[in-house]
Design a protein that fits this description.
Blueprint (H helix, E strand, L loop, with lengths): L1 E5 L2 E5 L4 H17 L16 E6 L2 E5 L2 E5 L13 H10 L8 E7 L5 E4 L11 E7 L1 E6 L9 E5 L4 E4 L8 E7 L11 E7 L3
Antiparallel strand pairs: 1-2, 2-11, 3-6, 4-5, 6-13, 7-12, 8-11, 8-13, 9-10, 9-12
The structure holds 2-oxoglutaric acid and manganese (II) ion.
2-oxoglutaric acid (AKG) binds next to strand 6, strand 9, strand 12 and strand 13.
């Protein structure tokens, strides 16, 4: 385990052991069984390349009406609970006082990417965002608190965890690409990212 900070984003490399990663993936399979992955539409009318679902009180959602949180999956059911392994990470690395309201589950197939954006659909930016990487490596880009300017990139690997809080809470960030086949954690390949946030 080693820790680095890039533009205030704290990255804990190797935070999850291979065993812990496997346990988490099994729990996530149960979440996606109840709340299947879907490809949200951007407000601009293009489907995202990343597939998503959520666990927790709220799930992140997007369509023609914009980005927001909803209390149910598009199938009409409440979101499943956040797996305890994720809650434990949050309690260790972010807060033992309050659990996250949302654990967004992003799934990247080989060509998926995520454009530069801020996480800003939450009510209180004093709460950090916790981000967990599982499966194939991802080239994560970190920019500034306003769009544009110089950026720095880092390859996030399976088991790495990032805490995006404090001065870094509103930095632009995105995923340029994944490195297909770089991990054997997921039988069919790809990358899972978990993004936990306090919403209200
Ligand atoms: O996949 C990642 O590492 C980042 C995901 C992200 O930024 C988000 O879901 O807001
Ligand atoms: Mn984000």
């Amino acid at each position: 385990m080693s820790e680095i900070s890039i533009r205030g984003v704290q990255i804990i490399q190797g935070a999850l052991s291979p065993e812990a990663q496997k346990t988490l993936v099994a729990a996530l399979r149960e979440v996606t069984r109840q709340a299947p992955l879907f490809s949200p539409m951007t407000p601009y009318g293009k489907p995202m390349s990343v597939q998503m679902t959520s666990a927790g009180r709220f799930g992140w959602y997007s369509d023609r009406s914009g980005y927001r949180y909803r209390d149910r999956h598009p199938n009409g059911q409440a979101w499943p609970s956040i797996p305890v392994g994720v809650l434990n990470l949050w309690r260790q690395l972010v807060s033992a006082e309050r659990d996250p309201d949302c654990c967004l589950i992003n799934f990247y197939k080989e060509k998926a990417r995520m454009g530069m954006h801020q996480d800003r659909d939450e009510a209180d930016f004093s709460w950090p965002v916790l981000s967990v990487s599982l499966g194939d490596d991802a080239l994560f880009r970190i920019g500034n608190r306003t769009r544009g300017g110089k950026t720095e990139s880092i390859w996030l690997r399976s088991g790495d965890v990032a805490v995006i809080g404090g001065e870094a809470r509103l930095v632009y960030h995105g995923v340029d690409r994944i490195r297909p086949g770089s991990s054997s954690l997921l039988a069919k390949g790809g990358r899972i990212n978990l993004t936990c946030r306090v919403v209200t």
